[in-house]
Amino acid sequence: MNELCSLDCHVDHSQVESVFEAAYLEARRHRWIESQNAGRDLGSPVIHDWYRRFWWTFLRCRHVEHLLGERAWLEFDADSYCVLQNSPRWNTPLSQEIIDLYRIGWENLNLIDHALHRDYPMHEVYECLATINMNDARLNPKFN
After folding, report:
1. Which of 25, 65, 80, 139 is a plausible cystine mate for 70, CB 3.0–4.6 Å?
2. Cα angle at 64 between 105 and 125, to 5 degrees?
3. 3 state DSSP class of 93
4. % residues pLDDT > 90 (the chain)
């Protein structure tokens, strides 16, 4: 495993978590809640329902946690851990807006179009998008 560290962010390797394991736990919790509401075990179709409905948002939120240095995730590039926390430029309203929109599912093209319509400084938008590198978070779910 690559060392997950930077000047300001260090993580103990024993604290690195797996997105796939965390997602499966969330899917199982979804199954339990839905089964409780139905009064019977609804089985694996509810697990697949969670992945269909929530996987991509869950994944993006974990990716942002990784980029901000809030939590290290094994499946994301170790060099990107804490990359958004190490510089004051990521605390600007523009970068926060881009991060928030990315977290809820906006793609590069949506974000660029949004920035163009609002006459945002495009060099800052491109720099933010390059740092986020949303392609790093395009992982297909694994079913246990």
Report:
1. 65
2. 70
3. helix
4. 75
